[in-house]
Amino acid sequence: MEVLTSAQYGFYQESGFLVLPGHIPEATIDRCVCEIEKFRLEAAGLERSNDRLDLEDSHSPDKPRLRRIKLPHALSDVFADLMRSDAVLAPVRDLIGPDLRLHTSKLNMKSAGYGSAVEWHQDWAFYPHTNDHILAVGIVLNDVGPDNGPMMVFPGTHKAEIFDHHNNGVFAGAIDLQSCGLNPDDAVALTGPRGTMSLHHARTVHGSDLNRSDTDRMLLLYEISAADAFPVAGAMSKWPSLEEYDKKLLCGSGTITPRLENVPVRIPQPQPESAGSIYEVQANAGNAAFAKATR
Ligand SMILES: O=C(O)CCC(=O)C(=O)O
Fold first, then answer.
1. Residue 151 CA, ligand 1 centroid: distance in Å
2. What's the pLDDT at 293?
């Protein structure tokens, strides 16, 4: 182990998540928050979401509302450097091994007063791979308490089946808790001071409520896989070529021999008409667990 204790390793294996309070240094978080201002300005000129920025449904160019910065590591060195730092990668190496590849990155803004909810889901439903040594690193850029839309997880669900994320025969990226036999009271909120880093297994059920508070909740996510996990055909993962795939290596080496494991898979197809972000995909979900913003 590079940085985690065996108790932390055991907790992750058992529960499917781990929280490292205040793990990322203040100065790094300050740089991230500063960088975000550029994207807020860019959002102000936009009519609609594009391949860089995802906008709240209530956005207008004169009342800009940025919901997500897409692939922040590709748009800014601040987010690329943090992604490649040992602060991020050492705990991931401890959990899923030395050879790591970026799956994707995003920064969910969840702004004070109206930031969108994310319905309950397993990331694995979006991108099944040949093995499930895949996790999401979440770094909170503000203090997160129970009221500003913390991410919530269902402990142990990484060992469960892959739940049904379809609605009316189309992939909707969200589950219905009741029909999956999950009780909302069992969900654990991942709260903590700014700089807190969480790690959750790709199969762990998670979601987050709308932000009704007066405090922002910005969550930077790096989704990372073992380098020998290859996406299954039909997954929402880009696989343009081996060369491009290997450009996403974060440490260690790539391989052309995927590790094949007996993992439950349900292909996220057919896709909804608009699938540019999880928010668009989940617009097709049936019973929403969380309210929509009214402000
Ligand atoms: O922002 C959140 O609280 C949840 C994010 C998430 O699960 C996702 O974007 O896949």
1. 7
2. 79
Long-range contacts at 260-266 (CB < 8 A, ≥ 24 apart): 260/130, 260/131, 261/130, 261/131, 261/132, 263/128, 263/129, 263/130, 263/131, 263/132, 264/161, 264/162, 265/128, 265/162, 265/232, 266/125, 266/128, 266/162, 266/164, 266/165
Minimum CA distance residue for ligand 1 atom 1: 108
In short, whether 68's Cβ falls inside 6 Å of ligand 1 is no
219 pocket-lining for ligand 1 (C-beta < 6 Å):
yes
100 lines ligand 1 (CB under 6 A): no
Structure tokens at 171: 């992939």
pLDDT in the model for residue 227: 98
Neighbours of 159 (CB within 10 A): 13
Tally of domains within the chain: 1
Domain span including residue 57: 6-282
**Residue at 291 is within a domain:** no
pTM above 0.70, yes or no: yes
Q: Which residues of the chain have pLDDT under 50?
A: none
Residue 10 lies in a domain: yes
Q: 190 CA distance to ligand 1 centroid (A)?
A: 12
Dist. CA 223–CA 151, nearest whole Å: 15
pLDDT of residue 173: 98
Amino acid at 113: G
